[in-house]
Amino acid sequence: MGDEEGLGAHDLQDIEIIMEDKEGLVCGEHSDMQDKHVDMELGEPTQDPISWPQNGEITLEWIVNLMETFKWASWNKSLSEFASIMPHFVVEELITKASHILCQEPNCVKIQCDNNTEVVVIGDLRGQYLDLLGIWESVGLPSDKQLFVFNGNYIDRGKSSLELFLVLLAWKVFLPHRIYLLRGNHESSDISEICGFLKEVNRKFPEHGQTVYRKCLEVFAELPLASIIADCVYTTHGGLFRSEGITSSQSFGEKEIQDDHGNKSGRKKQKITTTLCLGSLDELHQVSRFVQDLSAKDAILTDVLWSDPTTESGLTENNRGDAGLLWGPDCTEAFLEHSKLKVIIRSHEGPDSIACQKGLKNMLEGYSTDHEVESGKLHTLFSAPDYPQHTSKDYKSKGAYAILKPPNFDTPEFVSFEARKRHEAEIKTISFAQQSDSAATSSGADIAFRASGIATSPSWIISLADDVGTPAQISEASKVEGSPLPSDLQCRNLTSPITSTS
Ligand SMILES: [Mn+2]
């Protein structure tokens, strides 16, 4: 393995997990962790197929082997060999075990923290498994001193969605109160089917792809929707959400929003409907979240996973993906004030979707501060750097994570980081030339994706990670992606400049 070329075997050698707190949550959850001092190194895996632990209990050693096997395989194995290192029945066992925990969590998990604990919040990861390892390398793994909250969108776009999600599930099973996995809008049947995850699973499990995919959809629907950390920070994938009944005594914010609307924003009156007012955490708590297909549009469920903040006051329907809401600073203030919270950390918007909206922030550092109001702040956090990968659009963006520190936990410290260098074989892709937005929007396929709220169509790419050196069959794209081919196809290697054929 060429360590000098990127994330090498030695890169995680310095990470130590010290499990020494005899009274800590870790010990309470795992007797085998008690008094244990573990030096963790991610090195060469055993290269045997992963097997399910004999007594059914996941250990730290099992997770470390899983992590290093996936890293090793991402450089040394083809996609179609994946099932030989991670058998489908092990995947299914792991998901079943995680499901037992996740389905018992409430829609909005309340995370209490003591003064010895830091909380790390992480945004969209989008299948960029090596970048997740990079985060852990710099900040450390889940432990009795460090708790993680993930804001969803583990999958689609990056090539290792399955590995990334399975590793997170393994940690969830191992330390259920040290890692919280929230749902993103991509963790749904309607989006994961068209944006790459289904294709990835089918290529990794040529025989059992449908079974594994269905199993993933089941656990996606069990992921909780939001968290409240230390009674002061609300995190979720999209953001705020509507009240589903104006007569509900639990809804609030209607008056403030309407007044502000009429007086300041100049927005057309018909945009203001009497039924669109801000929902409360009580209402979020009551949502039936175990729904695989989010296009079914339970309003609160889709809002919380799809909504975006805006600089304009008020609460309006979002035109991005025909789902969710746009909410203004007045709504952020109303929500924080009513919920007695100080910070919102949401994700959902990366550099590509921001680039579609003129005049707004960029996400080139992986985070932004969107609203600063009397009661607190709203931030957007995106943790997939160099996004979207495998496309000709390159924003050279950084990813970021946020650290919340005791005793107050109310001032997130944002840390930006660059993408891990990927293996040369992975970068060799054939992509359809997408040299201009005008070319992209001329494609019916791209328009369809934009209508789904997907800023960058996935239909432009065929990854050659599993058959490097073999010419790709371009026509595979239309079958795989279910989209018509653009008329101006070009092949290129992303390591070389685009050859212009005008
Ligand atoms: Mn999203």
Characterization of this structure:
With 502 residues, this protein is α/β, with parallel strands linked by helices. The protein folds into 2 domains: 1-422, Purple Acid Phosphatase, chain A, domain 2; 428-481, no CATH class. It has helices at residues 25-29, 60-76, 82-85, 88-102, 129-139, 161-174, 189-192, 197-204, 209-220, 254-265, 281-286, 299-306, 329-339, 351-355, 424-427, 437-441, 444-451, 476-481, and strands at 16-18, 37-39, 108-111, 118-122, 146-150, 179-181, 226-229, 233-236, 308-309, 315-317, 325-327, 343-346, 367-372, 377-381, 399-404, 413-417, 429-431, 461-463. The strands form 5 sheets. Strands 3-7-8-12-14-13 form a 6-stranded mixed β-sheet. Strands 6-5-4-15-16 form a 5-stranded mixed β-sheet, covered by helices on one side. It has a 3-stranded mixed β-sheet with strand order 9-11-10. The model is unreliable at 1-40, 254-273, 427-447 and 458-502 (pLDDT under 50). Manganese (II) ion binds at residues 153, 184-185, 237, 348.
Characterize the main sheet.
6 strands, mixed
Could you say what the CATH architecture of the largest domain is? Answer: 4-Layer Sandwich
Could you list the spans in which at least 5 consecutive residues all have pLDDT below 50?
1-40, 254-273, 427-447, 458-502
Given this structure, which CATH class of the largest domain is correct? Alpha Beta
What spatial order of strands do you see in the largest sheet?
Answer: 3-7-8-12-14-13
Radius of gyration: 22 Å
Morphology call: globular
Strand content: 5-15%
- Give the full name of the CATH homologous superfamily of the largest domain: Metallo-dependent phosphatases
What is the helix fraction of residues, given as a range? Answer: 25-40%
Class based on secondary structure composition and strand pairing:
alpha/beta
* Chemical compounds bound to the protein: manganese (II) ion
CATH topology of the largest domain: Purple Acid Phosphatase, chain A, domain 2
